[in-house]
């Protein structure tokens, strides 16, 4: 062990578990790539104001969880706590939002940072894959994103997840609801912090996870009863499209989510095997965000799926991912055979065969152990006598069968066997 440990609330991704993270990222990305989403990468930190304005001063993410700091040059920056504000900022900066170019569909994958109280499924450094469809108000886009997330989870073999769906209304109807909710909340017995939250952003009180708060919220006015006709119709179209795609969802009128920028469609993916950190992903429509960060009106929708929690969900469901062995062929060189086998391994790799060789001058026993540990299907073993005869021993590590094969033919033979 070294003197140092991974910082509190973080963990390292190391083999063999790390392959699951790669597989999850790839499974989420694949349907997006396949649906017109282009890859975007933005810096790990931004001007702190982007998040303060974009995500909202009153949210936990900004008020409590953000890693904000001043640089030596005096810039006020923050490690990114989420992806949407950065992606929108980048799209605006690059003028991707030209007329005729909309919606701009982007996906991303990366690390996010929140100063949270570490617990199972909740870390200070975590990983998300996200997607944003910027600049179009079209229920089919909201539906597309929900359907693609469902496809991603299913392609991984996840089954015990649920999709919760709600509409948060728009700038016409939400203020009316907000007032009704505020007056309901003012009659409750809440702690000082929650009372303050009720003043700044009353919808977020609905998101309070504490049982004593939830108990008091029974009978609270629900947004559905306040939606204007345009929002109602929009929401019905989203629901109809998802239903037609055969994707099951639950209407959840208390779903509000923790970010200020959401309007209309909001959704969350929850997994029932994760205890209290049950959200594996979430998202929604954020029609006002562009204007909040100084851009033009660009109604948009997006989601972010948590990679860490998706891996935990796979483990909770006992799903074994179908991950091919990293190595197909392992070379064991004895005597003076190393340069020849090293050359064969290089040739195999160039031919697209996953190949490895034992290093460090091990004897037959140690090198064969390496071969078995590698998960390879075949070993090529050779010593001075084999090479004098122009052959290597090709050993099938599954059946134990071993045959000599000409050095000049072994690459072709292996390619054929592994095809
Ligand atoms: P929660 O209600 O669990 O705090 P959130 O609403 O803060 O979640 P989002 O901002 O919607 O989460 O982020 C999308 C996804 O990213 C979450 O559904 C979750 O899977 C993952 N996520 C968020 N925060 C963390 C964290 N601290 N550690 C691990 N994963 C996280
Ligand atoms: Mg959170």
TrEMBL record:
Keyword tRNA processing tagged: no
Domain annotation Aminoacyl-transfer RNA synthetases class-II family profile: ranges: 32-324
EC nos: 6.1.1.21
UniProt keyword annotations, A-Z: Aminoacyl-tRNA synthetase, ATP-binding, Cytoplasm, Ligase, Nucleotide-binding, Protein biosynthesis
Subcellular location: Cytoplasm
Coiled-coil annotated residue ranges, if any: none
Main location: cytoplasm
Pfam families noted in UniProt: HGTP_anticodon, tRNA-synt_His
Catalyses which reaction(s): tRNA(His) + L-histidine + ATP = L-histidyl-tRNA(His) + AMP + diphosphate + H(+)
Domain of life: Bacteria
Molecular function via GO: ligase activity
Annotated InterPro entries: aa-tRNA-synth_II (IPR006195), aa-tRNA-synth_II/BPL/LPL (IPR045864), Anticodon-bd (IPR004154), Anticodon-bd_dom_sf (IPR036621), His-tRNA-ligase (IPR015807), HisRS-like_core (IPR041715), HisRS/HisZ (IPR004516), HisRS_anticodon (IPR033656)
Keyword hit for Flavoprotein: no
Family membership noted in the UniProt record: Belongs to the class-II aminoacyl-tRNA synthetase family.
Subunit (UniProt): Homodimer.
Record's protein name: Histidine--tRNA ligase
Species the sequence originates in: Streptomyces cirratus
């Amino acid at each position: 062990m070294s003197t140092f440990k991974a910082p509190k609330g973080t963990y390292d991704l190391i083999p063999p578990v790390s392959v699951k993270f790669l597989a999850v990222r790839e499974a989420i990305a694949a349907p997006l790539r396949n649906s017109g989403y282009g890859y975007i990468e933005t810096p790990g930190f931004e001007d702190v104001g982007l998040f303060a304005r974009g995500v909202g001063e009153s949210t936990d993410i900004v008020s409590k969880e953000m890693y904000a700091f001043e640089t030596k040059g005096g810039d006020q920056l923050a490690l990114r706590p989420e992806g949407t504000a950065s992606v929108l900022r980048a799209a605006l900066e690059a003028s991707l939002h030209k007329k005729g170019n909309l919606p701009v569909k982007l996906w991303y994958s990366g690390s996010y940072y929140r100063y949270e109280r570490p617990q199972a499924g909740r870390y200070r450094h975590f990983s998300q894959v996200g997607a944003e469809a910027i600049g179009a108000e079209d229920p089919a886009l909201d539906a597309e994103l929900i359907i693609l997330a469902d496809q991603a989870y299913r392609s991984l073999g996840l089954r015990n997840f649920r999709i919760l769906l709600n509409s948060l209304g728009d700038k016409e109807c939400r203020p009316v609801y907000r007032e009704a909710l505020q007056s309901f909340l003012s009659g409750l017995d809440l702690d000082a912090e929650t009372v303050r939250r009720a003043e700044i952003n009353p919808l977020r009180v609905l998101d309070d996870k504490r049982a004593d708060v939830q108990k008091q919220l029974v009978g609270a006015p629900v947004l559905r009863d306040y939606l204007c006709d345009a929002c109602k119709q929009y929401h019905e179209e989203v629901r109809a499209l998802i239903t037609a795609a055969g994707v099951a969802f639950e209407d959840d009128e208390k779903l509000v989510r923790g970010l200020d920028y959401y309007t209309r469609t909001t959704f969350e993916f929850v997994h029932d095997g994760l205890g209290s950190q049950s959200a594996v992903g979430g998202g929604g429509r954020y029609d006002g965000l562009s204007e909040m960060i100084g851009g033009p009106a660009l109604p948009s929708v997006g989601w972010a799926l948590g990679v860490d929690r998706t891996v935990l969900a796979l483990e909770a469901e006992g799903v074994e991912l179908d991950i091919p062995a990293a190595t197909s062929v392992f070379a064991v060189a004895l005597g003076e055979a190393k340069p020849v086998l090293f050359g064969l391994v290089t040739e195999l790799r160039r031919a697209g065969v996953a190949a490895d060789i034992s290093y460090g001058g091990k004897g037959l026993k140690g090198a064969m152990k390496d071969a078995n540990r590698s998960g390879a299907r075949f070993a090529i073993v050779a010593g001075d006598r084999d090479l004098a005869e122009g052959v290597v021993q090709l050993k099938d590590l599954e059946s134990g069968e071993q045959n000599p094969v000409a050095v000049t033919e072994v690459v072709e033979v292996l390619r054929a066997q592994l095809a």
